[in-house]
Each structure stands twice: as C-alpha cells, then as structure tokens.
Records
---
Amino acid sequence: MKLCGFCSLMMFVVFVILLFVSQHALSVEVYEGQESVLLVCQVSVSVSQRSTVVWSREELKNPEVHVRQPSGDDHTDQNQRYTDRTSMRTDALQTGDLSLTLTKPTISDSDTYTCTVRRMGELLSQTEEQLLVRERPPPVWPWVLVLIILLLLAALCLFVYVAYTRMKKRRADFQVGIVEVTEGVESVLLPFKPTVNLSGNIRVKWSRSDSEPVTVHVCQNGRNEPHKQDEAYRGRTEMKEDLLKGGDLSLTLSKPCRDDRGVYVCTIYKNGKFLTQKKVALCVRAFQVATMEVTEGVESVLLPCKITAGLPEDVTVEWKVTVPKPMMVHVYQNNQTQPDKQHEVYRGRTEMKKDPMQTGDLSLTLSDPRVDDGGVYICAVYRDGETLQQKRVALCVKVCQVEKVEITEGVKTALLPFQTRGQLPEDVTVEWRRSDPKPMVVHLFQNGQNQPDTQDEVYRGRTEMKTDPMGTGDLSLTLRKPQFDDGGVYICTVYTDGETLAQKIVVLCIQEDWKTTMELLYQDDGKKNNTTLHQLLGFIYETVDIRNRSSSTDSTPLMAVG
C-alpha cells in the first residue's frame, strides 16, 4: 500500500511539472545540405498568448537563437551564426505553434535547442529538441542506376535477339533504306535489288506512303505504264532496261525537290500475289549556303564550292550573283574561262583554280571586293541544259575603317592607331602593309611574336607593336624616325586560316619641316665652299626666320630674290 501511495504521489508531481513547466526532449535528424529543418514546439494558446518565446542553445557563448515578442521578432541579441536563418509562424503566439524553422542546417548546428515561454518574467513552458545534422551518405542511386542499366542491357540484348530472329525470317519480305540528297542535284537513285525469283508474271509498283498513297512508277512484266503514275512524277522516273533479268528494281527520280521528301515503297507482285517489298526514306535537304564576310580593302575573297571530283570535261560551270540584281560573274566552259560572257563589273576580277574538273574545287577568287559586291552567289554545274550540282554563297563586304594621322617631319615617332574589340585568338596573324607608292610589308606579328625577317628593309628596326596585342586588342604600330617618304596609305589586316577578322586603313600625312631642310642644305653648301649660293641660302634662311618671328606684327610680304 505504501508503495502504491508513493507511486501515486510521484505521478501527481510529474503531472504538475508537465502542466506548468513542460520539458520534452525530442530528437530530429537531418542531412547536411537540406533546405531547412523544423524544431517543433507546441503549447496551449493560453500559454502562448501575450508571452515571449525564446529559442536558445545553451552550449554557445551567446545562446540566443530566436526571440518572438508579442510585438514581433526581436533579433537584437541573436547569435550571428543564425542571422537570416531562423523564422517562426507569424501567428505563433495566437495558435500556440512555436516551432522554429532553421534553414540550411550544417553539422555545427547539431545540439540541444530549448524553447522557453515566459510572461511577465514567469516561466510558463520549456521544451527541448535535439537536432542532429549528419553528413549526407554516399548516394545509392549510382548503384541503382548501374542495376537498371544492366537490366536494360539484358532486356535490350533479348529484344535485339528476338528482333534479329524475326528480321532474319522476314528479310526477304521487307527491306528499309535511307537516301539523302541536296536540292538542285540532277537526279537521285532509290535502290532496290531483291533476292527473290523474278520469273513469271511480275508487277513492280513504286508508291509514296503519304496520308493518301501516291503512285510513283508502275512496271508490268518489264514494261513501264506511265498512264498509271501520278502526274507529279510523270516524265521524272525511270527504271533500268531488262530489270527483271538483272534483278535491279532501283528507281531514278530526276530533279528531286523538297516536296519529294517521304517514304517510298517498292512492292513486287507475282501472279497477282504479294511477293516482297522495300521501303526507302528520301530526305531532300535545302541548298547549301555558305556565308563569307570580308572588309572592303582586302586584296581578294574566296567563294568556296567543292563538289565530287572527276566531272565530265564537257560540263559548264557558271558563277552568278542573284541579289541585289542578277549578273553573270564567271563562266568556265570547254576547259577555259569565258570572259566575254561575264558582266563587265566582274571582268578581270575573277579567277578559278587549275583543273577544276579533276579536283572538284570550283571555288572562285574575287579580287578587290567592294561593298556593292555583297549578295548571294550561285555556283551551278550543268550539262546539256541540265543542272548537275549547285551551291550558294552569301557574300557580305563591310566598310573598312579609315583614319588619318598627320605629323611633321622630324618628330621621333608616329603612331598608327588600331584598337580592336575584345580578346583576339592566339593563332591570328597581324600584318601592317603599305599600299603606295608600292606594296611593302611594314610589320608582321605571327605565332605570338614579331617577324622582322618578313618586313621590307626600309622599315626594318623602325617599327614596334605594344606588348600582348592579342590580349589587349591594341594593334597600333609605332614608326620611329618617320621621314617625308614614309607618308602614304597603311593597311592593318587581322586574319587566321585565310579568313580576315578585322582590318583598318591609316593614312599617314607627313608635312615637310622647311627649317630642317634649309639647315641641311646650308651646311652642305658650306662644305662645298659655294660662297654665292651659301650667302643666298643664309639670307633666305635668316629672312624667313625673322619673318616667322615677326609675323604677328609685320604683314609686309617678302620680296623675291632675283
């Protein structure tokens, strides 16, 4: 009896403690890297209303994790490691749900968290929650993925085996092929060489399996029946002679276009019964279009066109421009160029490589490209009026940058400016050239360094580019000891693999220094003891010098010396 009474008393004490000071030790486990974790704390509304809730972690020097006052959250004394990482429901005090949300939990957050509820300093409730943040274990999905892949491979092997077995049995009854061509070719071959016996009453039918089947070609016992084919294919299809003896039922379709795309079916009937069949998927691609961009001022531009080598000698190659207006650019016929057939705008400016019929390289070199040369160029190869191959090239000629630099003879250096945008590739070549009075290589930068051996001897040792021009994009050239004869047009070209990336023209104007010239002439005549000329030059020099110094006050013209 005494033991029962003691137990009853202890239960009553525990009940009172739970009623006034709730102390629960719960545990929550999460993995590091999880978005957030919820530390639960539930009390009655009568306890939470008008109360202050403090979430704390006693192991820290500053234990305060989160504080909720009746007026709202109070972050004044919050531990810095929890800044912007904790939150409670806005209606927590009204509902009694005092749970705390901790975002982005880390291993260092593992500890015991206490939720304390006070009102006017009186302790009403206190709950402890154990948080354990573990390292995320190695993912299981790679092993699951490997298992799935193995199962799929096993299933695939089984499927392939079954499919191969079935295909082997039906190979004679059903065959599939794919043919790809480019729009503009003369013809395309849809191949079919069956292995079945073609003796007897044989009917061959080529059709296109669209939503409504279209009859493409019909042959009965070796005789074509054009009246049975669709009008879109009339006059465009052909099968070989003695096709039943040779066993080649391939179909030649001339002038394939985009509308001819689809699946073509060749069905063979023997004595009115199905014998075998093959499907050929025909894909007709659009014209090949290449785009070339150059800057006005380059010497030439290459319009590429490479086709199958070994063309017949009697074909004609025509380069035409269609946009902005049609013009004949170049004609190659009878193994030679036909300049009388090209437009006068391009006469003397076009050239093709040697033996284009043998090499298959029909590329055209257009010299001195101008802005007006921009447009769409077509290279067509035809024979007896039928086009065999065709290719389009879009040419864009951009306006070249031009800048004028003026200096006076006698200055130490002259800067020819050229600043490009962005960082240039390391394998580009930068070439400064002079176009007049004669073409000369002024400076060459290649393979990351200057190439003095390639420049003209007039400029050797007198030119310099800035450090790391590829990285900075500053391709300016410094010319030392510029002379009057250095004046002219300078062109800087940036290119790689024959393709021009950027270009600029700099016109260098050098004004002659009359004073220096007179001094040299004066000294030279003095050495020759030419007294009369020496005195005359001295007089002119002194007179002009005085004239320059007094030009602001004396406007009297100089008298000519007779």
---
Amino acid sequence: MTLLLVDDQINVINGLMNGINYRKLEIDTVLPSTSVQEAKTLICENQIDILMTDIEMPGENGLQLLHWVSENYPDIVCILLTSHADFSYAQESIKLGCFDYVVQPAPYQEIEDALLRAIAKVHTEAEKNQYYKDGLFYTNHKQELTDRTILNLFSQNPANRQQALQLLNEIHYPLSLQSCIRLISIDIYPLTDNTADSSLVDLVMRQKITDSLRLCGFCKPIYNLITLNTSKRFVIVLFANGDALSNLSVSSYHAFYQQLSKQISPEMSIYIGNFISFSEMRSEIHRIDTFVANNVNKKPSLYFTEQEKNFATSMDVADNIAHWNRLLNSEQYEKLLESILSYLDFIASLNVTNLKTLCDLHQQLTQLFFIYAYQHEIDVTSLFTEEYSYNEYMDAFKDTSALRKAVSFIIPAIHVSSGSDSEKGAVSLAKKYITNNVSLNLSVKDVADYVHLSPEYFTKLFKKEVGQNIKSYILQVKVEIAKDLLGNPNIPISMVALDLGYSNFSHFTQVFKKLEGITPTDYRKNILGDNSFPSDSES
C-alpha cells in the first residue's frame, strides 16, 4: 500500500511522516511532496493507492490536483486536508470524487481513522475490479444481480437456493452446505421510514456497512454478503468454513454496532441471528423478521435474537377505551389526546408490547374514532390529507411512534370537522386581532392564546376556515396595509416598514416583493407616477 502526502509546508509533511503509525495501518510506502507539480510526477512514476493533499498551496492547489487525478488516475483514493471548514471546498471536492475531507489541525488519531477508511475503500475496490476482470458481472447490473442471487438463498424453491449457491461459488464466495452461517438484519429508521427513492443512499449505506465490518474484524476467512430486502432493511449473510465465525467475540458485534451508528445514524437497530447451517437460512430469516416486527417501540440497540423476549399476549384496555369514549363525546379533545399519548408512553416504557397487542390497540382506537365520525355525520375520508393519508393511518399499528403520529393527527382533524359556530367566531376574532396589531411580530401562539385555543388545534381550524395558514395570512394582511400606505407620497417607505413591525427595511422589501412580485418603491412609482416623494434605498 503506497500513500502520497502533498503539502507546501515542510513541517506539516514532517509531522504527518512521523506522527502516524503507518506500520499498524499496513502502509508500506509513504512519499512526500511539497508541490502539485512534484506530486503529479510521483503519481506518474509510482503506483499510488491513497493521496492525502492540502488544498491551499501556491501555484496549483489541491482541488486542481484532485481534478487531474480524477481524470487520469480515478482509482486513487483521495483525502483532502484544509485549515478552513469551507463548505464550497467540500462541495467541490465531492464533485471531483474525493473520498474524505479532514479539517486541520486534526489529531493524528482522526487522520489515522480517515486512512483506515481509505484503506478499506482500496480493498473493496480491488475486490470489485477482480470481479469485473473475471467477467462475472456487467457494470450496469452488478448490484441487481448480486441482490437477486443473495435473496434466492432464502427462496422456498430448493432449485433457486442451489443455483444461488453455485453462482456465489463462481464469483469466489466459498459458501457451502457445511458453512457456519450467521444472519444480521439492520433496521436504519430514517431509511425504513422514508418513502422516497433511495437508490443512491442505498449504495452509500452498503459501502459504510462493508467498511464497518472490515474495521471491526469481520475479515477473511469470514465472508459477508449484503442485500436490501423489500422492507428496506439490510440483511448481511456472514459465513465461514471452519471456526472463525463461531469464535468471533461478542465485543466485535458491539463494535460493529457502534461503528455503523457513528457512520450512518444512531437511530438504528441491529439484530444478530443464531449460528445456523445453509438449510436453515429460510426459517432463520423468518424468525429474525418476526423479532424485528415485535420491536414496536423501535428502541435503537443491538439485539441478539437468541434471547427471546416475553411479550404480553393481550392488553386489557376496556377501561381506557371507555374513558376515552367519554372524553371524545364530551368534546374534550385536548384531554383525550393527552390521555392516549400518555398511555402509549406508559406501555412503551414497559417494553412488553408486541405487534399483535399494538395492532389490537390500533383497531380499538380506530373503531372509537370512526364510530364517533359516523354518529356526527363526518366523512371519514375528509379527515385525511395529502400530507397524512388514510393508508398511512391504517398502517400505523406497526410501531408506537407511528401510532402516536396517527392519534396526534386524527383527534385534531375530528375536532376541526366538528367545529361549532363559536369556533368559527374565534377565527373571525383572530383575524380582527391580526389586523389591529400589524405593528407587532405576531406568532401563531400569540394569536391562538388570544382566542383561548391551543396552537395545534387553532392552526388546523384557521386553515380550514380561511384556506391558508396563520403565518401566510399575517403576511398578506401586512402587505395589503402596506399597499394602502404606499399610496400616500408623504410617508417614507422606511416608515411604512416600521409601522408594520419590520425593523429591517430589506426584510420588508423581500416580503413585499415575494407576495406582489415588485418592490415597494416600484409599486409606489406605478400608482403615483414619477411625482416627488420621500424615497428609501432598498439595497
């Protein structure tokens, strides 16, 4: 492994040469360079694996070197060093394919960590290149073919499983019927909760998982296969021919969890399966999936699924349902919401709720809400919006956070749909309050407090009655009053801004132009012509 260091300051070069334990990193050769031109010569004459370069240098800088490397030697893994945490530098370096970015001064340990990640990248790319040289995968379909092959290991059809095993052997994965196997399921909550296309994120995650496994000792003779299942959970197939996998310490799995949490997100859970044989893979992944589904509280942690959890087979919520029904029928919506959320927090703290018991609770709550809607002639479908759909509500039984979101949405929605004349009067009162206090910087809470309603409920009620949210309405009222005041040539525009509560003249100009498509000065000129009147700078 060869590393090229580039920095115009010789003391920095010396520090990097002497302060890092390259032998421990298995870096055989370190080449120093004090200029971009010298670095290019060294790259042309040597097989460079990793380039670590400063950005700010006289003459050509590090970004220009990176551009040259990306065009001529794209296999070199590049790390940028800089003394300025400038986002534009980071953004440009990413465009040029930079692997990592370290802000100086940085501890040598941080630089060693960056080099470890780069080394893992070099090894991974070397393995990929070997696959390509063997002609076993086409570049455009490699990931798709790999995923299909791995998923076929869990197929119900024995012929599919045998074919997958054969294909893996052909690409140098020595999986066999006698291999010791362990399955790992990774649930990254921001990924599984995201409904958008995440193909790019998928590739990044796979690389981080691969790097983390390598850094934590999951190396040959232990092999790994990584795929993404239909539930957006990553599945890792660890296997070895011999005792290497079964002899791996529990601390290695904890280290992997910590490393991956740091690399991707702390909001994740990793589920470790039992040691199994090839013939047990299908039943084992089903067992792990059941364990994952029953973790309805989604508490981030490392779980060894061999330790079966004791869940409550049912929950007696009859008294709670009766209490919630009384609160709903007496229109005590805020108390109802508070009571249900408190109960969800309570059962989450006990950590004995599984998918079945949470599903039962969701069904009973749905029955409570929908019967009330029917009795009060509320169209259930009208309760839902593009932001929160009926289907999302009906799927909210899968975890406690989803059920909290569902309850927090549907109770205010029912409240709004059951709105009385007095509540409509509250909207009218709020509109008058806003008009009479345009000089104040009113918040949603200020307006809601004035009409003695909660901000959450009043926001929905106002939107339903007026057709726009409170903040937008306040801005609209201010601009309409501004237009009237601008018709008077004796009032300076800066005074108009102050009268409407804008201490920053530029901010007033931006708000006015956003709503009217024209600046206050130009608006005044349009309605008054070029007559002389007090003017203000809008710069």
---
Amino acid sequence: MIPIETLHNPGEIVLNLITTVFLCCMTLVVASCSKKSGDSVDETPTTTVADTNDIEENQTGAQGEPASKANITPEEIAALEDMMSDTSSDVESDVDFPGLSAIDVVSGVSLEIHWDQVADVSRYIIIQSTDGQDSVIDVAESNQSSYVVTGLSPNTSYSFKVRILDTSGRIDSNNVVVTATTATFYPPTIISASISPGVHRMTSSQDQIIITLNFDYDITINDSPRIPITIGDRTVYALYNAGDGTDTITFAYDVESDDMDVDGISVGSIDLTSGSLDGPGGSLSSGSLSIDGSASLVVPNSTRLWLDAMQSNSLDLTGTSVNTWNDRSLNSYSVSAASGEEPFFLSDDGDGRPGIDFSLGSKYLRGSAVISGSVARHVFIVARPYSLGSGTTNCAFALSGNESTNGTGYGIFMESPGGSNGLALRVSGNRVMNHEMDTSKPSVLSLSSAANSDVLDASFHVNGEAITSEQSSSSASLSTETLSGVILGGFSVKSATPNNAYDYNGIIYEALVFEDVLSSSERQHVEQYLSDKWSI
C-alpha cells in the first residue's frame, strides 16, 4: 500500500488505497437482505430527506449507534473522512451527484439506501450521520445504486449520506441526509407448522416423528420446550431437535416399540413451561399449534403385515388386474398373484369404497413368511362377502403353513350359520361361531389367539362386538406348525396351490396382522380406525 505521506493529493491517497484493496483482496460484497414473511411494523415507514444543517430537526427518533465498517480498512476510512473535512477546492469533485435519494426499511435490523448512478465515479461512499458527526461505514462499486446496512437495532432512527469518489480521486460535497426508522420487532410468531407424514415404527428408517415450525424471525432455544403428541391412548413429547439460531425449528419424538396409532396422531400446543423460543423482540407467547397429524401413523414392532386398498400406490396393476399388493407396515412384504389368478381392483364397490374383488373364483394373492412358530397373533380383516359358503368353504384370509409339506393352515371362513357352519377359524381343528356375516356392506373382523394356545381359545370380534356363541368346535394346537405364508382369497392344506373348494367370493378392503394379541384398548382403537375409514 502506498504510504499516505508520499502523496500530495489526498484524493490520490484514497483512490490508491481503495483500488489496491479491491483489486488485490476482494470483490465488494453488497449485503442483500429480504424482509421475511411476517415481519411486523407498526405502520409503513417514511424517510426524511434533509440538509445536514437540518438533521437534528427532521429525525423522528433517537439516532442509533454507528453501523460497523464492513468492506474498507481503517486507513481508508480515515483518509476519506479527512478529505470530507477539507474544505479546499483541491479535493472537491466537479461531478454533479445529487446524493442519497431514499431509504427502504428492510427489517428491524437492516435498511436499504438508494441513489442514482452518475458517470466518472470510482466509488460511492456510504456515510452514517449521528448527532451531527459523519462516519464512513463502507464504499460501494461504481455500478451499484443501493446498499443494505445491517446490524442495526429495532425501532431505531438512522441517518445516512452518500457521496462520490470520482475517477480523479476527489469527493463531492453534497449534504443530503435521509433518515429512516427500522422496523419494530414483535415476539416471534409461527408462520407454518407441519409433521412428517407416513407410517412410523421403531425398527425402521422412519423411527422419528418430526414436527417442523417456521417462524418470522430467527429463534433461540432456551431450556427445553417440548410438544405433546397423543399416540393411541397415551401422551408423549417431541423434544427440540435442530435449528437453533434459524427461523426453522424441528422437534422430534423417537418412536417406541409398542407405540400404535393407525389413524394418525394428535399434536398439542407447545409446552412453554419447560423452556422458551426467543426472537429479537421477545419470546413466543402462545404455543398454540394447528397441525393435522392424521397422515402421520404409528405401528408397533409387532406389526407384520398391513394391506390397504385405499392406498392405490400400494397396488401393482395391469388394467384392473392386481399383480401385487404391497405392505404398508415397513416390513417390505407383499402378496402377489400367479398368472391367471389375479383378483380385480374395484375403484368403487357401489358405495364409493375401493377394494380387491375375489368373486370370479380361483383368484388368490399369496405371500411368503409373515409370522412363524408358536407365537401370538392378531388379525384384522375388513371384508364383504357377496355370499356365504356352506361347510368348509369361502375362506377370505389364511395364514397357511408350509404349503408343500405340512401346512394345517389358519383360515378365516365366512359361512352360513347352521349345522357346523358360520364364521370360523379352521386349522386341523376348528372353532365355528354362530354368526352370519353381512353381505350388504363391509364388516371389521378381528381374530386373535395367544401363543401356544388351542384353536378353542381363539377370540372373535365383528364390528367391535365379541362373538361368543359357538356352533361347533374341535381341538387343535395353534403352535405345532410353522404358520408362515399368507393367502388372500383361498386356503390350502399340504399343497402349494390353494384348493378351489375354499375360494372366497367377495371383497377384501384391508388386512392387518400383528405378532401379538393386542390389548382391549388397542383392539378397539384399530377397530374404530377401520370402521371410520371404511364408513361401516
């Protein structure tokens, strides 16, 4: 850098100083800032244009502290300020520059100043006037016509000038001052709130429920604010996760193994008794949230299969023929049809419900192992038989055994009551209940059996009502075979191919399989979800 004392023209000093810095060290960065959605201002701010001599009379509030020097060195600032205080003609520019024209209020911490470009300018000098004292805060390039001053205080008055350093190294002497007041910061408000959609369970990549809050200002987290969420019949809390110092804050809840809420969780108001969310104008005063959690579902780790005809993206179709019905439980299971055995997808069953139609005979969807061994199981089926079978017929859903060697099956049959017929669980023995399924609309069927139990111990519910009246029964253990495969639409015994004598005539809308017997409240929760969903 050229020593100041070796130059005779002060303008040359400044021009060389600035040119050296800008050519060798940087490209001038002019700050950019846009007002965030939701910034609050008491009224539309006005700016005041004045001569320096009138500045004290025209300011509308207390002058803020000088803005920080951003892009020039202290030596450059000192040289420029010395030139501005020199009243001799040696430093006076001949360029006609009208000075600063306007100031826009950007936010509570920034103002944007404007001027009209003129020719023969090397730099525009940004000056803050405070209590009659001028301080150079920065310079702008010759092709710039605006500059954003940042780091200011909310609801505070600031006054600025702009002068030119021309290409000869001289400064103009305009005294146009413009004053503006920064916006008033209010306590932060929530612009939007959302929750991570989809199915969540502990043993999957979606093992966290994430709640995202977007604010009008950057937020500082203090202590431990939290958000209550209701999963099933219990309340848990999503805790602060990320975003401190930004306008986007996330809270997270780690899903536990027995959490279940298949119809979507509920989200409460932010608990501000345990912590706060602070902005530049104060703390969030109300934790009220409006979040629809119906698309954020939680299944327990015991969930083994979840087939849902209302989720059209879970179906692989050729025309209306169902090739594959994919699992929603995050276990990556699926049931598929062999060629010629494809059931049909109904977009409307006559009452607006989508479903899978097995009515044409020998239509099956089959899958591999879901559960095995002597474990508890709970099966829910939403089904509508077109007709009821007689004897051992009309099997809607089966957890079958090892089909090619030793399967006894675990089939849910929908038969006409009377004799040995009715709603039945059949294995090598059976339990036949005195219940006639409704053929005019879907029903929610729940069937459960404990680990190491007998078929006689199986429990039936239809549309939430316990079915206890028994037609007939014969004992058989439910733990001696490997109940692995899944068949929708039929039943097989020691055969790789379902026996068409058992073919199901009707629609299946949804099926869930749990490797557990759900509690009474959990069962009721699933039944209510299915009933509401399918308008039963």
---
Amino acid sequence: MSTRPSGGHWTTLRRRLSRRTLLRASARAGVGAAGLALVGCSDDEKPALQQQPEPAQNAQSDPPQQQSVQQSAQQSMQQTAPEPDGAQDPQPQAPSGPARGGVIRAWLPVDRHDRWDPHRSRFRYTQAMHSLMYNRLLRPDSVSSGELEADLCALPEIPDETTYVFTVDPAAVFWDDEPANGRAVTAEDIRWNIERQRSALDADGLPDPHFFRRAAYDRTASAEATTDGSLRLTTDAPDAAYLSSVHASPFAWITNPEAAEQFGDAWRDDPSDVFLNSGTGPYTPLLYNGAELTLARSSNWWRAESAWADGITLTSGDTSGIAGLYDTATVDRADFPLTNATVEALRERYPEHPTFELPLAASVELLAPLSDEVGAALGDPRIIRAIGLAVDRPQLTQRLYDGHGRASGPLPWFLEGWALNERFTVSLPGYREDREADLAEAAALVVGAGGATGSPIPLVVADLFEGFFPGSGEAVRGMIVEATGLEVNLEHRAFADAIDQLRAGERFCFLGWGAVPQQADPTDAWSDTLHSQGARRWSGGVNSELDELIEQMRTTFNLGARQDLGHQVQEMLLRGEAVQWQIPLITGIQLGLHQPWLHPDPRLFEYAWSTDRLSTSWLNTAHESYPLDRELPQLEDEAEADE
C-alpha cells in the first residue's frame, strides 16, 4: 500500500501550530487531553481512530441534518445603526457592503465525517466541509432551483445534444501548498478527475467500491483535453440531466493528480488527517482536532467577491450546548438541530437578532409499494391511494413540527420551479381543505377494492423516526383505520433493515424520512424510482404514459420545458392516474436566528447543500458586539514573536 511521504505540507502546518493555540481550540470545542494528543502526535504515534459504521443507504437517505431556506434577506442583511450625534466613544464606521475580515463560527458535527478523499466520500457533513475547500466544473446558482452557474469552468458550449465544450477559468489555481504548489488548473486535470471516478481503482490499481459515483461518471462516453484550457466531453445519447447530476452534483469535486500519488490510500483510510486535502477552493485547512475544524482563506484564492471572512471555524459537540454557544457568541447562527421551541426562546431573548427559516430537506413520506401477489394486502392500487388520502397532513404537521411545516407533493415545495404551485395542489385530493371529501373518496376506493375484509395492512415505522417523534406511528395508523376501516398492524424496525427488506421484495407501508434530493432536477430520481425500468422502483404497476413523460424529460434540454414535463408527472401522481407508491406527506420548517454582525448570503439558508455559501457571507467586524477575541489559530513563529 502507498504511504504518505515524510515531511510535506501536512507535517509543516501541524508543526507550526502553537501548543497554546491547540489547547485553546480544544477547550473551546470541549475536547479532552486524549483528543488533543491525537492532534499533536506523529503518524507513527497516532493511535487508530475507530470509525463509525456507515449507514446502509447513501448520504441522501440519512435522516435530516438539514440546512436550507426561506428567510428575510432584507432582515438578514440589515446594517448596524450609526452612533447618535454626540456619542463619547464613536465606533468604527459600519461597512456599506461586503467587507473582508473576521472569523465565521458555526455548529457542524465535523466529527461525523467519513473520508477526506473528495472522490470517495459520501457523508453530508464531509460534503459541507469539502464545499469550502473544493470547486466543481459547475455549481448551482441556487440549489433550490437547480439553475447552474460557472465554477472552475464557464457554462459549456453545447454544439449538439451529446457534446459539451468547457473552458477552464484562466484564473483557477490549486492551493499554494504541496503537492500542487499553486499551479494552474488545466483541462487535463479535469479529464484525470473524471477518469479516476470512472476507473474506481485504489492506489494499488485494485477495484475500490468507495468510488460511490462511478455510475454517474460512466455517463461520460469520452473526455478529451483539447488544449490546456479546453475540455470536450461527450455522452452516448442525449442526457438533459447530465450537467446537474454529474458535474454540478454535491460531490463533484476536482482535485489534482499529485494528491492521489502523494496521499495514496491514506486519503481513504485516515479520517483524522484533514491535511489529506488538496483543492482549489476559497479556504484551506488550518486545524482539525476531531471536534473542531478551522479553515483559513487560501493565500492564492482566485475569485473576487467571495471568501470575505479570514477564516471559518466549524465546531461540533453536544447538541444540548448549542444555545449556550449562541449566548456566548461562540457560534454565529442557531438553527438545526435545535428544537423550534429552543429557537423561539432565543428569539425572545434576542429580539434584535435577524431571523430566518429553512426547510428540513428530508420530507416525511409513506412508502407503499404495490405488490404483484394476488390477494396481498397492498395488491390493489386503490388501497394504496386510499392510504395516501387517509393521512391528515395538517394534523401530522402539528403533531411532528408544532405546525412549523407544509404539506409536500411529489416534489417538496422548496424546489422552486420544479414543485407544483401550492395554489394548485390545495385543489387536489389529499391536499384540499375539504377533509370530508378526502374521507369520502378514500372510503369509496376501499369499497371498490373489495372492502376492508382482506389481509391486514402492515405499517412499519423506522425506529429512528419513532425516536424523534414518539407516537407518530400510532397516530398515522389511527388516521388510516379511521378513514378507511382497514385493519392496520403496527411495528418498528431499524431504518436500514426496512429499506433492505423493501429492496428484496417484502411489501409493507413504511413511515419515515425520505431521501434528501441530490439536486432540484428530479429526472434522475424519477428514472430510478418511477419509471418501469427504474433500478429503485420497488413497486408494481407499469404506466406507459408516465414512462414516456420521464423519457421526454431525459431528452429535453430547455429547463422550462423540462419543468413543465415534471409538473405533468406530479399531476398524474396526485390525481391517481399512476401508482404513487412513494406517498409524500409533509416537510418540516426549521426556525433560526443569527448574530447581528453576520451578513449571510441568502442562499446559505437553502436546503441541504448550501454550506459553500459561507464563502459569500461576510462579517461586520465593526459591530459593537462582534467578539474582539476571535482570531485564527496562531502559528508557532507568530506566537514566539509575540512573547
């Protein structure tokens, strides 16, 4: 196996961090002496860290540790009021717009990550950290709408429906550290990244299953660096979702070949060494002690109008202490995973602090795959539709989220342009205000299916979901029984076990969180779960019209036209014209507030994949309450100069 060479950037940076800095940072994050020892010892001395077992599902199936959006931008961007006339101690003038300086501090469970290799990671917290250190070919201008913008490359020329010509930004460079030493990003670097994802080999040239996005990158038929600054990609067939699903997806990071050669499989196997990163992004790692990650602005960051803060510190720890961290100005925002009641108490305590709301990106849903077995409890599509109508969404929102949530259609309401307009959905069964009409339709469907005399309906609730919301399973069971007269048997199972059983062909209703959308465009997700040939379609009931609409989405390059097709798919499902085995219920809304000196990019509060917008947020360090003792960790030579 490859091993990391002695010396190099990792050892140099770690050696230069002062002991005083490490102690101060560890104390702030609540790390004991044992945790600090891991930071200070050499590779040979470092004990092996026990890595948490990975969930059976990809990161998008994890329960919600969400970050995302609706906020009052005007309130969030308000400026500090000027000193009144005659003030004895005038404060520094508040900046009129984005200004450089300061250190942003936020809570993020940085201890719950998987791998630093940007091609072999899949945890959402790793993605959040990587989003400040790496770039993609393209990125969403808004993760909620899915419209793309330039990142390492300009938006490509598309001379035909299978060809994409990218131009690399001539200013783009890798970090000015080993192993790339600040060199320019080339088209050949990008081609190498694509081929590495496709070949999926470890440092010894053996197949490595940790390249989780190999199938996505296999949609690239050819990749050719025609010049240092130009890259030509082709697909085998028209693929309208190719750019958003592959090259602007949350994990589509670009690194350099030197990093793969130098880091070897330590990149995959050592989650404790944050310096196993080599990116092009606005921030570089400065300190990681297992509970807190500090990033500093890259010395050769190549894009203006971003990376306003000198640094960003992401701290983890006991969630019960987050409110206290906000009280002491140790973190700049308070939202998930705090309860909304806790946030409301903070809002009362700090009425002058800007507030925001963001959607919990994993919607609550009920899976009810249609069985092909004659006489099965879920063998009639009318029973499945009746179950979907039986759930009282407003009542469930009140029970689970104290009313802070909204009913979700086949696509959650926060996916702007893709989800159906709520003014339209409130006229449809399951979403209309006329509850009696829903109950009457559900009863008629059961009668049409032969009445409530068949086998009991098995209702399985994910154990983790029930742990978050005690009694939720019984509440939903009661709604179904009351509305339909069906017999419903309730049980609890581990989330991963239930998913494996559904995949293997067992048929039952399953209540829990749905998958977090990887991107706003649902073309890939629906091709997998709704199309009759979908790899993750666990339900019976072929519908050729539904298949045709999804296939048209795959070949429709105009965004508005593709969204219109998506609306038609959703209408078919909500009107009962196709089996809706993934029954959407509600999406919770997380309340939040932030310190008055933080001026967030409004896109920071969009769903899930928006941590990178910390780089376009800024601090008013002249604010009277901004903590003057906030500073980046001092390097040893600087510390010695101060003494």
